[in-house]
Design goal:
With about 280 residues, the protein is of the alpha/beta class. Helices cover about 40% and strands about 20% of the residues. The protein has 9 helices and 11 strands. The strands form 2 sheets. An 8-stranded mixed sheet has the order 3-4-2-1-5-6-7-8, sandwiched between helices. A 3-stranded mixed sheet has the order 9-10-11, with no helix packed on it. Helix 2 runs antiparallel to helix 3 and helix 4 packs parallel to helix 5. The protein starts with a strand and ends with a strand.
Amino acid sequence: MRQKIVMLLFNDFSNDARVLKEGKTLAKAGYWVELICIQDYKKNILPQVEIVAPFFYVTRIGGQANQYAIWIISLIIGILGLSILGQFWIAVAGIMLLFMSFTSKGHVFIQRTMTVITMAIVARSREADYFQAHDLNTLPQAHFAARSKRNKSQLIYDSHEVQTSREGCNGFIYRKIEQFYIHKIDLMIVENNTRAAFNKQLYGFSPGVIHNYPEYVTRMVGGQSIHRLLELSPNEKILLYQGVINPGRGLEKLVEAVPLFQEGTLVLSETDAKKRSCKQWLPN
C-alpha cells in the first residue's frame, strides 16, 4: 500500500520546477503525492484539482473565494455585534474589516491570512504519512496538520532559499519564526551544500541536500542552441544562469564580475509559460 505525502506550497504551481520534479520522483518511487497550493486571485483561474502525473495531483485553495468569504464574515460580525450581541465594538470591528478589504494593503493582508488559515485546515483534513512544507511560509500550516493528529505524521521542511534573507521579507521576523519551528521538524532539505553549511552555523545541524538539477533527458527534441540564438562562436564558453530574474539572487554581482572575465559569455535565461527571454553580457 502506498504511503501518502502531502506537500504545501504558497504559490499556484504554474512555474515551480523543483516541486514538480520532487512530486514526480516521489510518485515514481511508490508514494501518493498531493500538493496543496494556492489560487492567485490576481491571475487567471487554474484548475482547482489537477492531475500532474500518475499518483501525483494538485489541490488549489483560496483565490476569489477568499474575497467573498471576507465580505460575508465582515457583514456577519457587524450584524451579530449590533443586533444580537449588542456589542458596539464588535460591530465596529466588522465594519473596519470590511473597509480594510477594499484597501490595497489591507486586502493583501486579509487575503494572505485567509489563505494561510484555509491551507492549514485543508491540510489538517488529509490523512498522510508525511507533510512537506516548501519554504517557511507553509511550515506553520504543515506543522499544524502533522502535529494535531492523534497518530503524528512526519514533518519535512524543504527550504528552497535562505529564508532569513529573502527579497521582500523581514529577516528578523523570518528568523524568529524559523527558530521556533526548526527543532519541531523531523527532516530538513536544502538546495545545496553552501546553504546546508549556513544552516548548521545558524541552528547547529546539517540538513539533507537535494540539488535543483534539470531533469535528465537522453535526447534533446526541438529547442534552440544558445550559441546560435546569441550569434556566438561555437567554441565560446558560456556561464549560464537559468531561473527567475529578480532582486536578491546575487545576479548583480555576476554582472559586476563580467569585466574580470578573461573569456566566455555570461547568459541569464528566464523562462516561464508566458515569457521567454535571454539576456547576455559579454566580457570587455
